[in-house]
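Purpose: get a first structural picture of the assembly so the mutagenesis plan has something to point at.
Setup: three entries, given in the order below. No constraints added.
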Amino acid sequence: MSDLLNMLGLAQSAELLSLSPPGWGGNLLRGLLNSLQIAFGAFGMGLVIGLFGAYGKLYGGPILRDLLAVYTTVIRAVPELVLILILYYLGSDLINKVSEAMGYGRVEISGVVAGIWVLGVVQGAYSIEVLRGAIQAVPPGQIEAARAFGMPPFMLMRRVTIPAMMSFATPGLANLWLIATKDTALLAIVGFSELTLETRQAAASTRAYFTFFLAAGALYLIVTLFSQVIFGRIERWARRGQPSLRGGTR
Amino acid sequence: MIGLRDLLKPHRILLILLFLAFVVWCALSLRWDWLPQYAPLALEGLWRTIWLLVVTTILGFLLAIPLGLAQAVGPWYLSTPARVFCTVIRGTPLLLQIWLLYYGLGSLFPQFPAIRQSELWPYLRQAWPYAVLALTLSYAGYEGEVMRGAFSGVGKGQLEAAKAYGMRPFAVFRRIWLPQAIRNVLPTLGGETILQLKATPLVATITVIDIYAVSSRVRADTLIVYEPLLLLALVYLVIAGIIAFIFRRIEKQVPSAIQRR
Amino acid sequence: MTFLKTLAATAAAALLTAGAVAADPIKVGVAAEPYPPFSSVNSAGEWEGWEIEIINAVCDAAELECEITPTAWDGIIPALTGKQIDVIMTSMSITEERQKTIDFSDPYYNTPTVVVADKSMDIEPTPESLAGKILGVQASTIHQNYAQKYFTDAAEIRIYQTQDEANQDLVSGRIDATQADSIAMAAFIESDAGACCEIKGAVADDPSILGLGVGAGVRKGEDDLREKLNAGIAKILEDGTHEEITSKYFSTSIYGG
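Result (C-alpha cells, whole complex):
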C-alpha cells in the first residue's frame, strides 16, 4: 500500500490526511460531523416550518397567506450568505432581548444551534413550496372521504394527507437535504467550525491547499451520493403500491 | 402577478401600511450617513455583480448544451464524463469549488515558475477569471442536468421527420432539436438564473469586489451591523425581481409549446 | 394550533433553562481563521499559539474562568456587542474608530506595521515605491485602513479575509506586496513557505489609524471586567510570565516595540 502511494507521489498527501495527529484527517471528520449535525437539524426545522407553512398557505386566512408569500419570496431571492449573516446577528440579538425581558441572564447559544436556526429558516421557505405542491397533488377525494368519516383535522393530516403526499414530496425533499448539506459550507464565513472551515485551517497551516480542498470535496461528494441512495430507497418505499409515475424508461 | 384590484383588499392595505411604516422607521432611526460616501463604490460593486451574473450565465448555458446532449444521446465515452462532471459540481459546495480553483491552483504556481513568464500571467494574477470560471462551471453543471431532460423530451417523431426531409444532422440539431429543447427549459431558466445570482457573493471570498464585498467593507469600516445587510438584501431582491420579469417576458414572446402527449 | 403553541413553549423553555443553568465562563473571542503564530488550530483540533497562551495566562492571573470561542474575524465586534462573546483577544489594535463602539484594556503587545515583498523586488513602504503595484491586506484591520488612506491612489489594494491567504498569494505571485504586523510577518518569512520574501521596512506611523498597541476588547460600560483584565495583564508583565511565553515564540520582546 505505502509503496503504491510512494510511487504515485501521494505519500505526503496520505500523511497529511491521516486520522491521528500530525495528520489532519481527524479534524476534517470532526468538521464533517458538525456539518451533518447542522444539516440534519436545519432540514428537520425546515420540515416543521414547511408543514405548517404549507397548511397555512393552502388553508390559512388572507393575512397569513400574504405573510407566508412574503417569507418564501424574500428567502428565495436573497443569497443564503446574506441571509445567514442577517439571521445570525438577528437571532442572537432577539434571544438575548427576550431572555433579558423575562429576567434570565444571557443565553448560551452553541454554534450548532445557531447554525441550525439560520439554515433552518432558509430551508423552511423551500420546504413550504415543496410540501404545498405535494399536498395539492393528493387526490381531493381521499381527503373528502376522510372528512366524511368525521376525522378531526389533525388525525386527517397524520393518517391521510401526510402518507399520501410522501411520494410526491420525496424528490423535492431529497433535493432540499442536498442543499442543506452544501449550505453548511457557507457557515465557514461566519466562523462555525464545520467541514469547510476545518479544511481552510488545515490548508493554511500546511500550505497543502490542493490536497485538503480535494479531500473535503470528496467527503461532500460521498455524503451526496450516499444520500441519493437512501432517498432512492425512501422514494421507492413511499411509492409502494402506486403505478409508476415516470412515463419513459429514463 | 397581483393586479391593482387585489392590492386594494383591506388586509393588504393594512399590510402595505405596516410595511411602509417599517420602511419609514428604517429610514429615520437607523444609520444611513455612510451611504453617500460609499455610493460610488457600491455602484461599481453592483455593476461587477451583474456583469458576473450575465457573463457566467451565458457561458454556462453554452457549456450546458454539449453536456446535456452528451448525457442524453452521447456514446458512453462522452456521456460518462459529462455525468461525472455534473455529479461532482452538484455534489460539492460552490464555496469549496471557488477556493479549490483560486487557492488550490495558486499554490501550484510557485512550483512551476514558467507560468509567471507566460502570456496568461496578467490574467492569472487577477481574481475575476477564477470567479468567472467557477461560476460558469457551476451553472453548466446544474443546467447540463436540466438540458439532458430537455433534449430527451423532444419528440422522436419530429427528429425522424426532419431527417426524412433530408436535413443534415447539424441542421436538425440547430433548427429542430435545440430550439425545442430550449423552449422546454425556459420555465426553469429564470429560477436557475436567480440561483446563479445568489451564488455570486461567494466570489467576495477570493477578493473580487462585488456588491457583497462593498457591504462587507462598509460593515468593517463603520462597525454598523444591520443597515448595510438590509440594503444589500433589498438590492438582491430587486435584481431577482428584474430577472423574473425579463424571463416572463421572454416566455410570452416564445410561441407556446405544441400540444404534446 | 395548540400543538404548535406547546411545541414553541417547550422549545423556548428548553433553550432558556439550558442557558440559565450553565455557569457563565468568560467567553474570549479569537478569530476563527488561522493567524499563526498568534492563534491557530493544530492537527489535534486544539487552539495554540502565543496569543492563546497569553489569554490563558491573563485569565489565570485575573482569576477568571475563560473559554476560547472562535468567531469570524470579520464580525467579531458585532459578536461582542451582540453578547455572543465577552472579550476580544485576537491581536486587535486599539484604535479611535473601534473605541467608538467598544472599550479596550491596556495593551498587551505593540509591534510596528511592515510591508513584505519578494526578495528580488525593490520595494519600500512608501506610496511612491508602491505605485502600480498590487498590495494585499486583511479585511477589517488597521492595515486595510492604513493602506486605503496612504496607498490607495498609488497601488491596487486587494482585500483578503485572512492574512494567511494574502501570504499565500504573495508566494504565488498574485500580489506584489502585503502590509501586516511585523511579528506575524517575521514568523512567516522564517517559515519554508515564506522563504521567497523579506520585510521591506516599517510604514510611517499614524497612531490615529495604526492605534496604540493590541488590547483586549470589552463591551462599553463593562469597567469591572476591563479592570480585572488590566490587573491580569499587569500581573503577567510584572512576574515574567509574558516574557516567558514570548521567548517560546519570538526572539525579541514584543511589548512596547
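Chain B has a mean pLDDT of 89.
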